[in-house]
């Protein structure tokens, strides 16, 4: 298989990328088709749908060894489950599946029609292998159970900015909302809980330094990345 497109997101590194789609609903992305698929006929009728399935590759993990069991972060990183009972990125075949919001289609670009996406959980440049419309009558299963995720005791983090911290002009209100939603998901490894440790997260166009104290992520510095 060859990619039909690549997704452009504000997450150039794996650290900070939402662990599931739509957990950071304000996160915007652009799906840019490869030249053979930059044809209006390929997306005819797609704008009648509000949500899409993206089938993609864990490209940053290509060639990484996999194990029959993994330790889901939401279980504290201490409990092992079968790889097929989780959504671990380390899989026999590095294939991902995400449900995202289709906000619109930008047809006025030199790269052909570009899909405007919200709520993706993908790193910048992720290869997309297929797009399918989300069909509510077939894809929505209200009575489904969620296995170990039904009993998660996880609480989102609140975000606080250090007193006197000034944000660069590039950090728009929309960017700030995406940062708040990103930090709410607690991007730290499950085994790290040191309130004095500083973490660095890149949310384009800025790099953020933060620490976690109790149930709050405290942003201590924000600077333009690169």
TrEMBL record:
Record keyword Amino-acid biosynthesis present: no
Domain of life where this protein originates:
Bacteria
What InterPro entries does the database record attribute to this sequence? Answer: TrmO-like_N, TrmO_C, UPF0066_cons_site, YaeB-like, YaeB-like_sf, YaeB_N_sf
- Does the entry feature the keyword Ribosomal protein, yes or no? no
Q: Which residues form a coiled coil?
A: none
One Gene Ontology term of the biological-process aspect is: methylation
> What PANTHER family does the database record attribute to this sequence?
TRNA (ADENINE(37)-N6)-METHYLTRANSFERASE (PTHR12818)
Family membership: Belongs to the tRNA methyltransferase O family.
Q: What is this protein called?
A: Trna tsaa: trna-thr(Ggu) m(6)t(6)a37 methyltransferase tsaa
Q: Which organism is it from?
A: Akkermansia glycaniphila
